[in-house]
Amino acid sequence: MRFNPKAERDFLKSLPAKEARAVTGSWEKQRRILEDGDSMEGIYNQGKDELYQWRRVGDIMPVMTPPRVHPDLLRSGDAPAIQAAEALIKASTTPEWPQIKLRRNDRMTRDTMDALQKNTHIPEVSDFLRFLDEAGYQSSSQIWHYFKYKYQYHDSLSKPTDLDARFDQVLNDA
Fold first, then answer.
1. CA–CA separation, 147 vs 36, rounded Å?
2. Distance CA 38, CA 30 (A)
3. Higher per-residue pLDDT: 12 or 4
4. Which long-range contacts (CB under 8 A, 24 or more apart) does 163-169 make?
5. What's the DSSP call for residue 64?
6. Distances (CA, A) of 6 to 13, 29, 104
7. What pLDDT, in 10s, does the model give residues 75-118?
8. Comparison of pLDDT for 130 and 170, the residue scoring more
9. Alpha carbon distances (Å) from 170 to 82, 133, 155, 158, 174
10. What's the pTM value of the predicted model, to 2 decimals?
11. Structural domain boundaries of the chain?
């Protein structure tokens, strides 16, 4: 992940002044961050021995590169082994969404179900509601969150796998 000092300042600006002061430690530090453009890390580390300075995880541990098929295997030309390796990589890097059992009396579930009920004229919604009823209110959490975001929060998702791309983007701090 990359450090984004603008995000730090935007976060502090979004807080009430007293909360921002509590986060930064003093009014002076808050002013230095918001007006002078200093970072919390720089202020904290100022004058400290290197052993006691803040470090970001990416500065200490190298960022892991995505797994890929070993070059020796690719050079071997062994098609079945290459396909098996690619399948293993895909299986290990594809996000896994758990199954969930929805509690009908839960407020958040009811809010989403109410939003879905208002959209039963849309075929994908009516099909999903029918599926939920037949499955005893069990579903993949990916599909549940897709319908929740799309119809309750009016998000622009077009398919459930869009959630994977969105979460990848968040994890990569894009």
1. 44
2. 9
3. 12
4. 164/94, 164/95, 167/95, 168/95
5. P
6. 10, 16, 42
7. 888 888 888 888 777 766 766 788 999 998 899 999 999 999 99
8. 130
9. 31, 33, 16, 18, 6
10. 0.48
11. 5-60, 65-94, 99-171
